[in-house]
Task: inverse folding
C-alpha cells in the first residue's frame, strides 16, 4: 500500500473515531501538487520547472548536506538563470517540529512566495508539504494534527512509529 493510501485511511479513521476520542476537528480541503524530480541529470530541469510555478520560491533544506555538497549553490544559480527569486529556509531538522514548519510557512507568507522548493531528503520533503499547507491556509500546522502527534508538537518525545496525519 502506498503512502497516499495510508494517509487516506488515516483520514477516514480520524473522521470515524476522532469525535468519540474527543479530538477536535474541522473540515478542510488542501490540494497542492507535488512534483519530484529524482535521478542523474534531473537538476537541469529545475529552472524551467520553477519558472512555470511562479517568480519566487521558498527554498527549503536542512542545515548541512545541500550546502556541503554544493547542491544549494547549484540550485540558487539555476533559479537565478530562470529569473526566479528565492528565500532560503534552511532550518529543517530530522523529524521536523511544528514550530519549524510554522516558521517556514510564516516566511513564505511574509515574502510572497509562489511555491515551495524542497532540496533534501525525507524530512525536508515532508516539512515542505506541511509548510505549503500552513502557508496557504494561514493556520498553524498544529491545527491539522491529531492523537499521538500532539505530544511531538508540544516538544515531548514520540515514538518513531507514530505518524502525523491530517484530521
Result:
Amino acid at each position: 500500500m502506498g503512502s497516499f493510501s495510508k494517509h487516506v485511511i488515516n483520514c477516514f479513521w480520524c473522521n470515524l473515531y476522532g469525535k468519540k476520542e474527543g479530538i477536535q476537528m474541522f473540515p478542510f480541503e488542501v490540494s497542492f501538487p507535488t512534483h519530484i524530480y529524482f535521478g542523474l541529470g534531473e537538476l537541469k530541469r529545475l529552472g524551467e520547472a520553477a519558472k512555470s510555478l511562479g517568480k519566487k520560491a521558498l527554498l527549503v533544506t536542512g542545515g548541512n548536506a545541500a550546502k556541503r555538497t554544493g547542491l544549494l549553490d547549484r540550485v540558487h544559480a539555476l533559479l537565478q538563470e530562470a529569473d526566479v527569486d528565492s528565500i532560503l529556509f534552511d532550518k529543517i531538522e530530522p523529524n521536523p517540529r511544528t514550530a519549524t514548519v510554522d516558521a517556514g510557512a510564516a516566511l513564505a507568507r511574509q515574502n510572497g512566495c509562489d511555491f515551495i522548493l524542497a532540496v533534501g531528503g525525507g524530512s525536508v520533503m515532508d516539512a515542505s508539504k506541511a509548510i505549503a499547507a500552513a502557508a496557504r491556509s494561514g493556520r498553524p500546522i498544529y491545527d491539522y494534527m491529531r492523537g499521538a502527534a500532539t505530544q511531538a508538537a508540544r516538544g515531548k518525545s514520540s515514538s518513531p512509529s507514530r505518524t502525523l496525519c491530517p484530521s
